[in-house]
Design a protein that fits this description.
globular, 190 residues, 32% helix, homodimer, 6-stranded mixed beta sheet, 6 helices, two-stranded antiparallel sheet, Rossmann fold
Chain lengths: 190, 190
């Protein structure tokens, strides 16, 4: 997706050879018009699937997942990252490590929001190690729902996340693939 | 906003006299079409203001804030709730208690995302005690930006949050006002 690639070229900051700061367009600030285009693109790529809900993980995946759910015309469910007073019980739960936070968090989805009749599209902003995605997949399996596919805005192909999800048998669509952040340069994969 | 009120009547669950569970339409799952209508309504109410950015707090305010930013045609910035490896420095920071989580969290906004030229519209899903809002207002003041107004989807008027923000001199627009959750009933205020 060239418009996203152009924005990454202009605005992303390389933190180190593993971490790209996308704060100004993906993780902390978003351009709603660009994000809606990303949602339309995911809706187009998965148009052959009878998706019942889009699912994501809070927080930075929410805008793109919302835009995708809007384009398809289905609800959005987002997994919560920790226990709150509002959802102490009746939730599917998986503990996951966080690549960017250096901590473990609990991922939760209310049992009444997912079920065996659901055909889900999982949308997230970025895949690095894929821990959050694998945690969410375990939750989806617990619920009996089907995972129709996975859409990720930015895949760092030099990290194992995207590959490991494909090896699990899932269709993974990514809008931009980054092959390397070595030597202070973003190398895109085409 | 009658369509939101109807959905709350049908789907909200009263946890106790202080807490309303809006998981199925606001905090954990969202209806993108309804959310876009809420965004258009906020854009309409604040159309007299030259808003440069919409600002919110992760996570559950993000969809409505995104929809509002899309309707106005400006970027969305969302305050992060804790320190991650990606934004350890160069951030405005305020510590806030959380009404629903029973814990304190740090609220952060990157310094390069807000500045004195900004005229902000703060959008959130719900206001109870108003702690997150007051924390965000302190961050906005640190940045030198102007806060043009505050839009909240659901105000519980029997709690002090909305009133305290109005007493600070801010224009606060709420789509639905709930006067009481006593006796297992949602009493709307008109």
């Amino acid at each position: 997706m060239d418009i996203l690639k152009d924005r990454i070229r202009k605005e992303a900051k390389i933190v180190n050879a593993d971490v790209l700061n996308l704060d100004s367009l993906l993780n902390h600030a978003v351009d709603p018009q660009l994000t809606m285009e990303m949602g339309k693109e995911f809706a187009r790529r998965f148009s052959g699937e009878p998706v019942t809900k889009v699912i994501s993980v809070e927080s930075s995946g929410i805008p793109i997942a919302f835009a995708t759910a809007y384009a398809i015309g289905v609800p959005l469910v987002f997994a919560r990252r920790k226990m709150t007073l509002l959802n102490e019980s009746d939730a599917y739960c998986e503990r996951i490590p966080s690549f960017t936070k250096g901590i473990v968090t609990d991922l939760l989805v209310s049992r009444n929001l997912l079920g065996p009749d659901d055909n889900l599209l999982f949308i997230d902003d970025i895949v690095a190690g894929g821990d959050a995605a694998r945690g969410l997949i375990k939750i989806i399996r617990q619920s009996g729902a089907r995972l129709a596919g996975i859409g990720i805005a930015v895949e760092k192909t030099f990290q194992a996340g995207g590959r490991s999800l494909r090896e699990m048998g899932y269709r993974v669509e990514t809008l931009v693939r980054i092959a390397s952040l070595q030597h202070g340069e973003i190398a895109f994969e085409d």
